[in-house]
């Protein structure tokens, strides 16, 4: 069931189904994508007035494997230190004890991942492919020269995201 949640009674309610502990970020019921570990929902940053991605990991799925939970927290802590135009920005992280979820807010990529984008747009020039490749390599160079060095481990078109209106790629 979708419920309306409002932080300011003078504003019309947004159809958020969940708010972060500060009330800044509201999650919609719209699923943007999912993987083996997390689901990603469309969300809204009420302070900045921008759409964001609400990433949610159900920790109960890993209660028998503390190593997986420790690795998740470690990766999120590391993501918080990364600042590069071709790396998806992490804005906020928290654990919801009641729902037993790890939640983190990242920038949203309006056109989804590169795999789906290429399925939708079949005729792309070599110039565009080279532009995307160069951006991917710039992001990888940043990761590899970061202290400590970061290795992506799962770089593929499903894990590279794009804002098609400006041709910017992120991973």
Automatic annotation (TrEMBL):
Keyword Ribosomal protein: no
Domain of life per record: Eukaryota
Keyword Nucleus: no
Entry keyword set: ATP-binding, Kinase, Nucleotide-binding, Serine/threonine-protein kinase, Transferase
Reaction catalysed by this enzyme: L-threonyl-[protein] + ATP = O-phospho-L-threonyl-[protein] + ADP + H(+); L-seryl-[protein] + ATP = O-phospho-L-seryl-[protein] + ADP + H(+)
Pfam families attached to this UniProt entry: Pkinase
Matches recorded under InterPro entries: Kinase-like_dom_sf (IPR011009), Prot_kinase_dom (IPR000719), WNK_Ser-Thr_kinase (IPR050588)
Protein name stated in the entry: non-specific serine/threonine protein kinase
Assigned EC number: 2.7.11.1
Sequence ranges assigned to domain Protein kinase in this UniProt record: 26-171
Family matches, as PROSITE patterns: PROTEIN_KINASE_DOM
Top-level EC class as recorded in UniProt: transferase
Gene Ontology MF terms in the entry: ATP binding; protein serine/threonine kinase activity
């Amino acid at each position: 069931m979708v419920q309306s949640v409002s932080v300011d009674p003078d504003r019309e309610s947004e159809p958020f189904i969940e708010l972060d502990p500060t009330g800044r970020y509201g999650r919609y019921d719209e699923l943007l994508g999912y993987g083996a570990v997390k689901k990603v929902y469309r969300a809204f940053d009420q302070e900045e007035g921008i759409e964001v991605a609400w990433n949610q990991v159900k920790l109960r799925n890993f209660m028998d494997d503390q190593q997986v939970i420790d690795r998740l927290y470690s990766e999120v802590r590391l993501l918080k230190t990364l600042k590069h135009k071709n790396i998806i920005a992490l804005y906020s992280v928290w654990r919801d004890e009641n729902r037993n979820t790890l939640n983190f807010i990242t920038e949203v990529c309006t056109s989804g991942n590169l795999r789906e984008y290429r399925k939708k747009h079949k005729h792309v020039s070599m110039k565009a492919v080279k532009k995307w490749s160069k951006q991917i390599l710039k992001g990888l160079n940043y990761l590899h020269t970061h202290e400590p060095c970061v290795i992506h481990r799962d770089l593929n078109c499903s894990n590279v995201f794009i804002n098609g209106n400006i041709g910017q790629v992120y991973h």
